[in-house]
Amino acid sequence: MPPPETLEDANNAAASGILYNEETKSGYRVETIRVLNKRGEAVTGRPVGTYVTITVGKLWLASDEQLDAAAEIIADILSDMAKRLAPGGGGVLVCGLGNREITSDAIGPLAVRDVTVTRHIKSSDSRLFSLLGGREISAIAPGVVGQTGIETLELVRGAVQNSGPALLVVIDALAARSTDRLATTIQLCDTGISPGSGIGGSRKAINQEQLGIPVIAIGVPTIVDSSTLVCDALEKAGINDIPNELEQVLENGRSFFVSRGDSDVAVQTLSSVIAEAINMAFLGS
To answer: Are 175 and 199 in contact (CB under 8 A)?
Structure first.
C-alpha cells in the first residue's frame, strides 16, 4: 500500500491510528488496513499490523484466467509482506491448519498438499536447488488438537525449531461475519492467527511472539454462525427492529455453524489458488 501522499495525510493517519486503501486489481477489490498504533488497535480491535482483504467472488465458477489473476494478486501481497518481514530471505515453512476430514475446515491441509516443497532438495542436491531458484520451502499439516491431543502451537513450534525457517505462512478457515463474505474473500495479515477463535474454541495464538519468527496468515471464511445468517436475512428483508425474544433466540444460536451447499468445490478451488500463489511468491513458478 502506498504511503501517505502529504504531511496532512500522515498526520490524519497517525491521529486515527489506521491507514486505509482500496483499489481494484484485475477486476478484484483489494482492501488494505494498516493499524499503526494503540489508537488504531482500539478502533479496529486488531493488533498493530497490516490486514488485506481480497474480494474474489465465487472463484469456483471463474475462468482459468480469473483464477490465475487471483493467484497473482495473492502472490504479490505475500511477496511484499515477506520482503518486509524477512528481508534477508531464508526458508519458508507453510502450515495448513484445520481438520482435513471436515470440508469447511480443510482449506489449510488441502492447500499444503499442492505447495511445492524444496527443503529436502537443498539438503540432498544443492546444485539442483540453486537451479530451481526461489526460497527453501517446507510444509506441514498438523491437524487439530481433537485429532492429535497436542496443541497446534506446540507442533508448529517443533517444526520451526527443527527446520529453521525465516518465515511462517499459516493457512486456515475462518468464520464469516457476513454471509456475503462466505467463501468469497481471501484475507491476509502479518500478525499471525488464533486457531478456532471464530467458533469460540480459540487455541494458543500462532504468532511471532510465540515462535520468534514473522508469521503471515492467510484465511478464507468458510462458515457462518446461524445467528448471523438470520440477521443478514432480516436486514435484506428490511427488518431492522428485532424483538427482544428473537434476540435471545439468536444469541442461543451462536454456537451453530453452517457452510455453503457447494463448499466442497469452493474449498477445493480456493485451496488450489492459495497454493499456486505461495508457489509463485516464493519459488517464482
So the answer is: yes
Alpha-carbon torsion angle 86, 87, 90, 92, nearest 10: 40
Q: Using CA atoms, how far apart are residues 104 and 267, in angstroms rounded to an integer?
A: 7
| CB contact at 8 A, 115 and 283 | no
CATH superfamily, domain 56-223+261-283, is HybD-like (3.40.50.1450)
235 SS3 class: helix
Contacts of 284 (CB under 8 A, 6+ apart): 133, 134
Q: Predicted confidence band at 160 (pLDDT cuts at 50, 70, 90)?
A: very high
What Å distances lie between residue 250 and 175, 180, 247, 253, 254, CA to CA? 17, 19, 5, 5, 7
Residue 236 confidence (pLDDT): 77
∠ CA 100-228-145, nearest 5°, is 30
Can you tell me the distance from the alpha carbon of 68 to that of 63, in angstroms, rounded to the nearest whole number? 9
Burial tier of 83 (Cβ tally within 10 Å: 0-12, 13-18, 19+): exposed
User: In the structure grid, which three cell numbers stand for residue 260, read together?
Assistant: 455453503
pLDDT, one tens digit per residue, over 58-116 is: 999 999 999 999 999 999 999 999 999 999 888 999 999 999 999 999 999 999 999 99
CA distance 207 to 93: 13
Q: From CA 209, how far away is CA 233, in angstroms rounded?
A: 40
